[in-house]
Design goal:
single chain, 334 residues, Nucleotidyltransferase, domain 5, 2 domains, 5-stranded mixed beta sheet, 11 helices, binds 5'-O-[(R)-(carboxyoxy)(hydroxy)phosphoryl]adenosine, binds zinc ion, iron, cytoplasm, EC 2.3.1.234, tRNA processing
Length: 334
């Protein structure tokens, strides 16, 4: 029997990506073009520019992904694409490209939820064991997801304001660090001997939701007060205090979910998975509990199309296809 090769397109934010994945697990190609350099001088992603950049790259990237996969289009079984959540203009570019391909090649179209993609990036590393809990933390998302069985998942907690990575980027900006700020804060935090005291948003006792805007305000207040008093800014101590607060809440809630749902694995996904402190604390606490922590390589944690193809394979197995009038849904539910 011939293997199933799915070509996937991801354009939900500021990374254009096209990948070909075989049987949902083997990456034949995963071409990613980041727009970070373009957006850096604006201190964040500019939606209109993101859409235009996707348009410039998508066609050659599809060719490149096929070439690297050493496949001709007649070996493809389906075309997959991120339907949402994301920036509407950015999503549209990928959806248009995927629809055109599906139509021209007479292949089924598969619509994928971006968070499902982040979760199933783990499937490219090793088989997921159910039930599992996934912590998805990036510039756009902060979600705790309960995976009951393959393709059966539900969000048990999410951010009520800023995403974790977004908070990192805003705090970095206040400390005059470059965009994206996550890696800079991470590094600076490790240079401090002590942490500046920072609040933790636990919310209601049984809640798995997150909130980072209060923490962000606390940092901004500290920065402003230092400025008003003409004191030197203790950037490293602030970075450490901020980082400890974020990690404490993320790790505590993730482990509580692992316990409550009797998870057999904890899966980490999203760009913030690069954070050394977060990885260290999660693996320590998981080891204590005897629950394996799965962290994909960073190239699969940040936005990429291979994860979209991996998630699409589950829909392929159930012949869960989309129509050619598929629309982008910026606030798509999981
Ligand atoms: O998954 P990703 O590449 O894009 C989105 O879908 O958002 O995540 C990017 C986010 C940025 O906010 C960036 O600051 C953050 O991940 N990030 C980090 C680290 N590396 C990247 N945050 C904390 N610590 C890091 N080492
Ligand atoms: Zn993402």
């Amino acid at each position: 029997e011939q293997s199933v090769c799915i070509l996937a397109v991801e354009t939900s934010c500021d990374e254009t990506s096209v990948a070909v994945v075989e049987n949902g697990v083997r990456i034949r190609s995963n071409v990613v073009s980041s727009q970070i350099e373009t957006h850096r001088r604006f201190g964040g992603v500019v939606p209109e520019i993101a859409s235009r950049k996707h348009v410039e790259s998508i066609t050659w990237m599809i060719e490149e992904a096929l070439q690297q996969a050493e496949l001709t289009t007649d070996r493809l079984s389906a075309i997959a694409v991120t339907q949402g959540p994301g920036l509407v203009g950015a999503l549209l570019v990928g959806i248009m490209a995927a629809k055109s391909l599906a139509y021209a090649l007479e292949l089924p179209l598969i619509a994928v939820h971006h968070i499902a993609g982040h979760i199933y990036a783990n499937q490219l590393v090793q088989p997921i064991e159910y039930p599992a809990i996934a912590l998805v933390v990036s510039g756009g998302h902060t979600e705790l997801v309960y995976l009951e069985a393959p393709a059966r998942f539900r969000i048990v907690g999410q951010t009520r304001d800023d995403a974790a990575g977004e908070a990192y980027d805003k705090v970095a900006r206040a400390l005059r660090l470059p965009y994206p700020g996550g890696p800079h804060i991470d590094k600076l935090a490790h240079e401090a001997d002590v942490a500046q005291e920072m609040p933790r948003a636990w919310l209601e006792p049984d809640s798995y939701d997150f909130s980072f805007s209060g923490l962000k305000s606390a940092v901004l207040n500290t920065v402003n007060q230092a400025q008003m008093r003409g004191e030197a800014l203790q950037s490293a101590q602030i970075a450490r205090g901020f980082q400890e607060s974020v990690i404490d809440v993320l790790v505590t809630k993730a482990l509580r979910a692992v316990n409550e749902f009797s998870a057999r694995q904890l899966l980490l996904a999203g760009g913030v998975a690069a954070n050394r402190g977060l990885r260290a604390q999660l693996s320590e606490r998981c080891a204590e509990l005897g629950v394996p922590l799965i962290v994909p390589p960073l190239s699969l944690c940040t936005d990429n199309a291979a994860m979209i193809a991996a998630a699409a394979f589950l829909k392929w197995e159930r012949r869960d296809f989309a129509e050619l009038d598929l629309q982008a849904v910026p606030l798509l539910n999981l």
